[in-house]
Design goal:
8 helices; binds zinc ion; alpha/beta; 4-stranded parallel beta sheet; 11 strands; single chain; 7-stranded mixed beta sheet
Length: 223
């Protein structure tokens, strides 16, 4: 199992245990260290016994500080009952560029438009994930050749700051990359209905949808 970020959605691995059937290892890739992307690490001790869990973070690559040092600020007494290495099996540095995990070829790209730098991730030719970034024109060439784009849409069509993207900008990245499908993630819950985000994106890119937990977004016919 490969997890892109560690938000509260990780609880699904515990509350829908069939997701872990036959799984021997979990690799978690962190886009950055904001709390909404790391707080779910605290669920990992609830995974079935014997599952190896490796957390990859861009601490050294983007911040010049070891990922383990950054995560120990959150995971460990007195904020958490367990130490970091009691919570996960291993902490690894996420490099920019290429990384192979099992059969998966990953590509990682630094995004400089957020309040702190973050990482765009590409998994083979199946999926590109761009979150916690203002509109970044470098993400369209990065995603070109991917079938599916997961892109944040914190704003609708009027960015109140440029550390996050609008649904319109997510659609521009999808259109310029030529992906088949766009799923909007990381919506601002204080702004409108999901349908508005969807309609805004569809003005520029018809095959847009809003992501929900447990959605299956990738065709598996030839993986
Ligand atoms: Zn975030
Ligand atoms: Zn963030």
């Amino acid at each position: 199992v490969l997890l892109l970020d560690a938000g509260t959605g990780i609880r699904r691995l515990l509350t829908s245990p069939s997701l872990m059937d036959g799984v021997a290892s979990v690799d978690v890739l962190l886009s950055h260290f904001h709390l909404d992307h790391v707080v779910g690490l605290s669920y990992l001790p609830g995974l079935p016994a014997g599952v190896e869990c490796t957390v990859w973070g861009p601490g050294s690559a983007l911040y010049g500080t070891a990922t383990s040092e950054l995560l120990e600020r959150l995971i460990g007494p007195p904020l958490f009952a367990l130490t970091l290495l009691e919570t996960v099996s291993e902490i690894a540095e996420l490099p920019m560029g290429e990384l192979d995990i099992g059969p998966l070829r990953l590509q990682l790209r630094a995004q400089e438009k957020h309040t702190h730098p973050s990482v765009a991730m590409r998994v083979g030719d199946e999926l590109t994930y761009c979150t916690d970034t203002g509109y970044d024109p470098g993400n369209a060439p990065f995603a070109t050749g991917s079938r599916h784009l997961l892109h944040e849409a914190f704003w609708l069509d009027d960015a109140q700051d440029h550390t996050h993207s609008t649904a319109e900008e997510a659609a521009i990245v999808a259109r310029d990359a030529g992906v088949d499908d766009l799923t909007l993630v990381h919506l601002n819950p204080r702004l409108g209905e999901e349908a508005q985000f969807c309609a805004t994106a569809r003005r520029l890119f018809a095959r847009a949808q809003v992501g929900r937990d447990l959605d299956a977004v990738i065709s598996t016919h030839d993986i």
